[in-house]
Amino acid sequence: MIKPKWTALLLACMLLLVAAGCGTDNQKSGSTPNPNDAGNSGETAEAPRDIQLMLDWSANTNHTGLYVAKELGYYEEEGLNVSIVQPGAGGTDTLVASGNVPFGISYQEGVTLARTQGLPLVSIAAVIQHNTSGFAAPVDRNIKTAADFEGKAYGGWGSPVEEAVMKSIMDIDGADVSKVNIVNIGDADYFTAVKRDIDFAWIFYAWTGIEAELRGEPLDMIYVKDYSDKLDYYTPVIVTNETLIQEDPELVKAFMRATAKGYEYAINHPEEAADLLIKAVPELDAELVLASQKWLSPRYQDDAPRWGEQKAEVWSGYAEWMFERGLLDQELDADSAFTNEFLPDTP
Known about the structure:
Elements: H1 8-21, E1 49-54, H2 64-71, H3 74-77, E2 80-85, H4 92-97, E3 103-106, H5 108-116, E4 121-126, E5 133-138, E6 153-156, H6 160-172, E7 181-184, H7 190-196, E8 200-204, H8 205-215, E9 219-223, E10 237-241, H9 242-247, H10 249-268, H11 270-280, H12 286-301, H13 312-324, H14 334-337
Parallel strand pairs: 1-2, 1-3, 6-7, 6-8
Antiparallel strand pairs: 3-10, 4-10, 5-8, 5-9
C-alpha cells in the first residue's frame, strides 16, 4: 500500500468545497438531523442515527478496529448505524472538513497542511502510535541506508513532501538527494513497479512489507522515524471537523467510545479481529490480513497510556519540520489540530 497523494491543487478544491459546505444544513453527512439521537454512555435512541465514516484508502488492517466496532455491534450500542465508505472523488479530508461526511481517516501531514490553509479539520485519535512507514526496496538493490538512495530510482505519487523527507534523511547520511531519480508512479502496485520501473518506494510495512514476506520477496526497510523524532508522526488518524465538535459533541463521544472499543478488541484479539475484517471485506487476501494483523495489533497503542492518545510535541515537531522545509506557508497552531477530549478514559 503506497501512500495516497495530497497536493496544492487538492487544497484549492478543499477550500472551495468548505466554503460551499458552510451554508449546508446541519452537517450534511448522510446522517439524520437530530443531534440527540446518540446519547450518553451507550444510551440508544429508538432509531439508530445513520452516519458515514470515509476511509483514506482501500480497506486494510489500519482500519480493523472500525470494522470490529461495526461487526460486533459497538456502534449500534451507541445508537449509531455507521457506513464505512471508500474515499470520495474530492478526497476524505475535503469532505470531512466541509461537513459533508462527519468522520474520516487521514494522516497527520494532511491535517497539518489543511489546518495551515484554514480548513477546520481536527484529529480525534491516532490509529497507530508510531509511524510504521518508510522507504522499501528489494534486497537485491542493496539499499541499506538513506545514502544508498543515490543513483537509484524512487517511485512516488508526486508530493513535495517525498523529496523533502528523502533530503532530510539523506543529509544525515551525507548524501545528495539530487542524485535520486524520482519517478511519479501514482497508484501503481509496489511489486509491479520495482520489477519494472523503480528501485524503492514509500510504503506502510504493516501491509506491503508483510505482503513481501508472504510472497517470499524480502525487502530492506528504512523507517523514517529512525532518522528523526520529528518524522515519528501519526499516520493514520481519525478526523472530524470543528463544527461537528462544537454543535454535536455527544455524537463525537459516542462514535469514539465504540471505535476505541473496536481497536482495543483488535489489540487483544488479533486473529479474531482479522476474521471480522475478512468477513466485512471478503475480497481481501485472508492470509495477508491475518499476518498483517498479528504484526500491527501491538502497535496500535504501543507505549501510549490508551489507544488513540496524541501528544502535542508530535504535532508541533512534525509541523516545525514541514515549515522549516517550505512545505507550509505558515506555522501550525498544534493545539487546535488535535484533541484527546473524545477518547474514553482508560479502565
